[in-house]
Amino acid sequence: MEISAQKYGLTNQKTVEFSQKLDLVVNEFMMIKYSEVNKQEQLG
């Protein structure tokens, strides 16, 4: 989960928490996006 923190060199605890939440949101979004793509491919 600390991918963003490592990538951008973030050390501030508040910023690290934010980056973790951002990673979670991005992961959720990508899962939703790709599950939709997979459904369309299966239908096609």
Task: Report on this structure.
The protein has helices at residues 3-8, 13-43. By secondary structure, it is mostly helical. It has one domain. It is rod-shaped. The termini are far apart. The model has no long low-confidence stretch (mean pLDDT 80).
Provide a concise account of the structure shown:
By secondary structure, this protein is an all-alpha fold. It is built from two helices and no strands.
| SSE-based structural type | mainly alpha
- Please provide the count of β strands: 0
Query: Per DSSP, what share of the residues sits in E-state strands of 2 or more residues?
Result: under 5%
Question: What are the secondary-structure elements, in order, as H or E?
Answer: HH
By DSSP (H or I, 4+ residues per run), the number of helices equals 2
Poorly predicted runs:
none
Core attributes:
44 residues, mainly alpha
Architecture blueprint of SSEs:
Blueprint: H1 3-8, H2 13-43
